[in-house]
Amino acid sequence: MRKKIVAGNWKMNLDLNQGEKLLKELLEKKINQEVTTVIAPPYIHLSSFRELISNSTIKLAAQNCHQQENGAYTGEISIGMLKSVGVEYVIVGHSERREYFLEDSLALSFKVTNLINQGMNPIYCCGETLSQRKDGDHFSVIKKQIEQGLFQLNEMELSQCIIAYEPVWAIGTGETATPEQAQEIHHHIRKTIANQYGEIIANLIPILYGGSVKPNNAKELFSCSDIDGGLIGGAALNASSFSDIINSF
Ligand code: PEP
Question: Which residues are catalytic, by number?
Fold first, then answer.
């Protein structure tokens, strides 16, 4: 059976006090233990959060990393640094990073490879823009993003990855993909992987949906056969809504 995962992407929100308050509220919630719960706060919160979650099942993610091990990359954070503060998952290629920070496929594929080499789990994001969907290009756009970011990996390496399908038009807009639209793309992603690596590997990879997931739509999305959880933005900034989403499984 594939892992069920719900990951909260806090983006550039909440200072340390606010973040600790939210995490403490979340720790008091009863959450479905069959679901791997991951939070991705801003980098500077990670060390202190490591202590706070030490007696819980919540896992830590970073929202990004640099692909090089160390060196003259002012302002960047390496994978080894993240590992040293207890991070196990790293979001790679979020559409905001692709759009605002011009992260290209080559840099993203290096990040994925180097994360795997250090025993970390990449959460590799893909998704089409509204105009790409309107032009009917969404299937080819997603296929290309998957190939460019992940197909340098061997079977063992790929099985450490998590994929997040996040249609750009649904992120932070309140407009969610319908369960049918999401399932169609998740199936397409799994088929793309199966064509390259075979069905067994394709069936192992958790594929998360992201884009305006809320407590009132999570259940329907999570009941789709190829949707294994969610990458949650806005609704992860509230302990009740985030735990309700986790408990929608
Ligand atoms: C995200 O940023 O990954 C995301 C899915 O955001 P939201 O849930 O707010 O649409």
Answer: 94, 166
Q: Tens digits of per-residue pLDDT, 185-240?
A: 999 999 999 999 999 999 999 999 999 999 999 999 999 999 999 999 999 999 99
Report the percent of the chain where pLDDT is more than 70: 100
Q: Rounded to whole angstroms, what are the CA distances from 141 to 25, 81, 165, 209?
A: 39, 33, 12, 16
Cβ–ligand 1 distance for 189 under 6 Å, the answer no
Is 172 a pocket residue for ligand 1 (Cβ < 6 Å)? Answer: yes
**b (16+ CB within 10 A) / e for 217-228:** bbeebbebebbb
Q: What's the 211 CA to ligand 1 centre distance in angstroms?
A: 5
Task: Tell me, using a 6 A CB cutoff, whether residue 171 lines ligand 1.
Answer: yes
Domain boundaries, the chain: 4-246
Residue nearest to atom 4 of ligand 1 (CA): 233
| pLDDT at 106 > cutoff 90 | no
For 4-246, CATH gives: 3.20.20.70
